[in-house]
Amino acid sequence: MRAAKPASAMAQPPGAGDLLLDGQALLITDGYRAATPTLKRAIGAIRDDTLSVEEECRWLWLACRVAMDLWDDEGSFALCARYVRLAREAGALTVLPLALTYYAAIHVVAGEFAAAQTLGEEARDVTAAIAGPDVSISALFLTAWRGQLAQASALIEASDLDAAARGEGRRIDAGRYATAVLCNGLGRYEAALAAAQQATAYPGAPTVSTWALYELIEAATRAGQPADAPRALGQLSESTEASGTDWALGIQARSRALLADNKVAEADYREAIERLRRTRLRAELARAHLLYGEWLRREGRRLDARVQLRTAHDMLASMGAEGFAERAARELTATGETARKRTASAIDELTAQEAQIAIMARDGASNQEIATELFISRKTVEYHLHKVFGKFRISTRADLAGALAGSPLA
What is the value of pTM for the model shown? Predict the structure, then answer.
């Protein structure tokens, strides 16, 4: 890797691909602080949209992953959407499953589970059609966040066996991260800690091993085994401080609060909520409200705790994160308040594809643009929108913003 570092210096000026490779080499040899400026330049160059189709095919897979490593939520959504579009337009069926998987993964941490499910199902369908290896890990993340113990455990076990047979250590790390999320949501903190420790032991998959660090911190403090938490926070802070985004610093503040004394913990929780509120990552924001509410209850501030726990419960239940929602409900009960049961709504009646089309139409995409993005016909888009309008009892696209307001699709 040290020999590779000067290779990109031969290009005058270095292109986006050169910057990506140089940044990756710096990341391995010198760490996040040294690599982040170069990697940010690389992502900026790629987002400038000056690459040829050939260059996009060559570099977008890595750029999507790097954007997530940099805690760049806007860049992650933009590049993943572009990667999917490129694969569809080029008819690159061997590339499309990976592109869809990246896109689904960022939708999961955003709490946009319906869109993530649609993308993940498409990835599996395309993989089956071409008889290719299953590269999708988004289903592991989705079932873990949803708190579906039996389904998630079965998927993770099958994924581990498949990954072991092909020697894919990264995918095994993804399974350990998913297990940590699942068990933290269900309150099985010792199991979450063990899984997170395995996911972070050999950081060969930067994204999931870094995300697993904050799962480890939460699990360790909740399990009463905080010995590993300060080390994990130090490792996490290397990347979050180098990044400096609201996603990064929000996660850092939330994790720091778990280890802080009472004098500074509250300020850390408030910082986490404020920063994460400025991102699309509603699932992570909801967990910040949950942790803050749990802390307030333990401090004996029941009324303040109820506000945070009620917010967390409503957000988590509406997006379908049932494990974490139940955890919030238990905490609410401990404050003397019963969590409100979620009532069915028109939103619940939408299929995964209807939900995704509704989001895109709300955001201004035309029927043709939606058809191109989702690799379906324009008539299919029109059919689904007609069904969406009927379920919401609205008549125009302009009404979608109000119909979706306050929902997990917002």
Answer: 0.83
